[in-house]
Design brief:
The chain is mainly beta. It has helices at 58-65, 78-81, 101-107, 163-166, 256-260, 286-291, 363-373, 376-380, and strands at 13-30, 35-56, 67-69, 75-77, 108-129, 145-161, 183-203, 206-219, 225-238, 241-252, 264-269, 310-315, 324-335, 343-355, 358-359, 382-383, 397-399, 403-404, 407-423, 429-445, 463-464, 468-469, 480-489, 494-503, 506-511, 514-515, 524-525, 528-538, 543-550, 582-589. The strands form 5 sheets. It has an 18-stranded antiparallel sheet that branches. A 4-stranded mixed sheet has the order 11-12-17-16.
Length: 591
Amino acid sequence: YVLRRNVEGGGRQQSFANQTFRAITGVRGAINDGWSYDVSAQFSQGTGTATTLNNFQVDRVIKALDAVVDDEGNIVCQSVVDGSDTGCVPYNPFVPNGVTQDQLDYLQVQGVQIGRISQEIYNGIVTGDLGTYGVKTPWASDGIQVVFGSEWRRDSMIHTVDALQSSDPNQLTGAGGPTIGKSGASKVEELFFEGRVPLAQDMPMMESLSFDTAYRYSDYGDSVQTDTYKFGLEWAPIQDIRLRGSFQHAVRAANIVELFTAEGANLFDAPGDPCGSDARDPIASDAECIASGVPAGLVGSVNLDSPAGQYNFIQGGNPDLIPEESDTQSYGVVFTPRFAPGLSVTIDYFDIEITDTISTFGPLNTWTACYGQNDPAACDRINRNPGTGQLWLGAGNVEDVNINIGSIRTHGYDLNASYTGLEIGRFGSLAFNVTGTYLEDLRTQPAPGIDLFPTVPGVQDTYDCAGYYSVECLVSKPQWRHRMRASWQTPWDMDLSATWRYYGEVTGLVSVHAEMPEDQLDRTLAAQDYFDLAANWAVTEKASLTLGINNVLDDNPPVSGAVGTTGNGNTYPQIYDALGRYVFVRATVDF
């Protein structure tokens, strides 16, 4: 192996181009005074093209490194001499300035992937106000309202990959393995019902009391049927205060990407192989390492450890996934005081638990389950390279395709406060809003009954990501985040706004049960404050123009060497502004 970065050719890049299309048609109308209908049909399609740039083609690297001296004393490729590739240019990475543009032009290639997802939806709804027929409680002035409906949906996917990336082995350096194109489709037929029952209205300590419920039956075919339902109660003792609570049982079937993505190789991050030298796991005995495919003489060897801290795993879809289910309890209060018109404050507590979660078990969890718990299913997913036992070179890998894992449970609070209509005379009015979430905990149980942390008393088979970042947590999970917005509605057909986005501090984890050392530079990702400005001009009644600047102060994101492949550029662009200041212009025209 020649381990060298292509610094002369520039960093590896990917260019994405997306196109979306949606068409919807329908008809709605009244059946009589108490009933109405709404029937619609919708078709949408998204097409994306991903172009990979600045990668070397593997077989060309092999030819370019196989250089000889020809009869005239010139250094040429052996493939030029034997005629198998007359365009080959010798590659000399061993001396300063030895790499030329001619070499790069020969070695660097472009990879292309094209994906398309289509969706069809046919929907029919009948809405009824039973109060028209006098169906209501004795204590309410409004009648019972109901909705009946049916829906049919079909999703389809096709993914096409060029020959360079789909070949085995993959011909693009740094890809880890072949990318296989695949296609598939899923459909569902549903029946649903919703109802709202005003129980009492305009009574002492009973400004309003109402009950609402909903039910949905879904048939995905292949003997997969699900039920979703909801119960809610809302009570306003006086006009200023409204209390509410609900219970919801929800179901989510796997989408077509989770079902049909072709299996392929990728990379995961780890400080070292548990059977290696850099991060030898005390729970991985010599016998267990040997049983998993490490040659006896290489247990504890540095050769098992990747110098890049990256190891191979196999990812992909799974058509045998069953729907995940969740139970959500929510309790909240809405405060709209009459003494402050325009003020509204909402606080809600949420408790959400997802079971049979559609996710991946995780390569690190697979290591721990195998070497710490001797779980045979986990050990079977570790496929070490024959002869060397390595998981970072050759065919060695950890299987980690989509499965139904254990559960995820989270608790926390949502806050929403707004104040609108603050008049400032001839200069218009002001409005303010703040929306925030406090994440009390976020616990994941990858495998019920399997103690993933046998060396940590009391931890057992769950881990909490609230306030932390790590490979297992995927992205940083700050306990508090908020968005505050101030808007000025001017009398000149222009609205101005300023937004403050805040993400709290997070602490890094070496593993899901151990924080980074106190003196480690990236132990903590500091809290981030981003400020955005926007102006919207109503050019006409049907045309508007918006100019915005996000991250006005051009703040850099927090960086860490432990982000790995769950983020990008040593940070988390899913959370933080990775590219700094962002300026945009948007024009909208309604017809």
